[in-house]
C-alpha cells in the first residue's frame, strides 16, 4: 500500500510500505476512507516530537471501514464504518479505569503516528479496537466525523473543560488555527459573555468570527489592552493557548485575570518561561493536558443533533494520493487560507 512516511525532521514521502496486518487479537485493520493532517504532524516534522522515529507512518485522525478484525474484537465486524480515535485505550490499566485514556499504561495513549504506524495511509492497523473506535451513523459524513478523531475532543476537553468556561466569562483563545477555532466552537456551548481570538493571520481571525468570536485582535497589536478594555482592566476569566510556542504561552499568562484559568492546548517543543514572580500572588490556575477522548460520544451526539456546526472547518479537499500537496497547503495557512484539509479515497 501507499502511506505518508516520516523520514526525519523536515522529511516526508508518499511511498509504498507493507500492508498492515492484525498483530494482536484486539486489533482491526481499516481501509482509510477519510483522513486529515494535524498541527501535531507539523510539530513532528519540525523535530519537536523526538519519540517519532524515521520510517514511521504519520497520522492519527481517520474514518475507515473495517476489513479485518482480530479474534478478540467483540464490538466490530468487517464492513463496519468507524471513527478511529487519536487515542488508544487498553481499558484495564489504572488511568483507563479513571477515564484518563491519554495516559494509558497498557500500550495505548497517543500511539498512532507517534510510537506505532498511523493512519495517513491506504490501510491502517488500529490497536485496542473495541475501545479506540466508534461506529458511525449514516447521517454523519466522513468529513464531519474525522474532526471528532482529535480536534474537537482535544479543544473541548483540554481547552474548554480544563479551562472551566462558565456562562458570562470572558474567554480568550490565542491561536485561531483549527484547534483554536474548535475551542471557540466549544466555548460557545457555555454562553460566555465575550470570546476574543488572537492570531497573526487576518484570514484566521476572519474564520474565528465565523466560529463565534465577537472580538478579534492581531497578535502584533496590543492584545493585553484589548482584553483589559473589555473587562474593566481585570483580564480574561479563561485564556486558552492553541499554538505551542513560548511567546504565545507567556502572552496567555499576561492576559488572565487574578483567579482566572490558563488552559494550554498547544504542543510545545521548546521551554517556556513561567513568570512566577508575577503569577504567584494572582491565584492563577494553569492546566495542561493530552486529550483523553472521553467526550467523543457526547460530541458525536451533538454533531448528529446539529448542535455543532463544523461546516466552516474544512477548507481544502484532496484525493488521498495528493497528500504531499495537502501537507504543503496545510503548512502555509497564511498563503493558502487552509484550516483543516481532508483527504479521501
Descriptive key words:
345 residues; alpha/beta; 2 domains; 28% helix; globular
Summarize the structure.
This protein is an alpha/beta fold and about 350 residues long. It contains 13 helices and 15 strands.
Number of strands: 15
CATH class of the largest domain: Alpha Beta
- Report the sheet with the most strands, covering strand number, pairing sense and barrel closure: 7 strands, mixed
**Average pLDDT rating:** 97
Give the C-alpha Rg.
20 Å
Number of helices: 13
- Hey, roughly how much beta strand do the residues contain? 15-25%
**Which architecture of the largest domain would the CATH scheme give at its second level?**
Alpha-Beta Complex
Q: Quickly give the structural class.
A: alpha/beta
Number of domains: 2
User: What would the principal axes of the Cα set say about the shape?
Assistant: globular
Q: First CA to last CA: what distance?
A: 13 Å
Give a written overview of the molecule:
- InterPro entries: ADH-like_C, ADH-like_N, ADH_Zn_CS, ER, GroES-like_sf, NAD(P)-bd_dom_sf.
- Belongs to the zinc-containing alcohol dehydrogenase family.
- GO terms for molecular function: oxidoreductase activity; zinc ion binding.
- It comes from Actinoplanes nipponensis.
- Pfam families: ADH_N, ADH_zinc_N.
- By secondary structure, the chain is of the alpha/beta class.
- It has 2 domains: 202 residues, Medium-chain alcohol dehydrogenases, catalytic domain (Quinone Oxidoreductase, Chain A, domain 1), CATH 3.90.180; 135 residues, NAD(P)-binding Rossmann-like Domain (Rossmann fold).
- Helices cover 28% and strands 25% of the residues.
- The chain has 13 helices and 15 strands.
- The strands form 3 sheets. Strands 3, 4, 5, 6, 7, 14 and 15 form a 7-stranded mixed beta sheet that branches.
- Helix 6 links the parallel strand 8 and strand 9.
- Helix 5 packs across helix 6.
- It is globular and about 60 Å long.
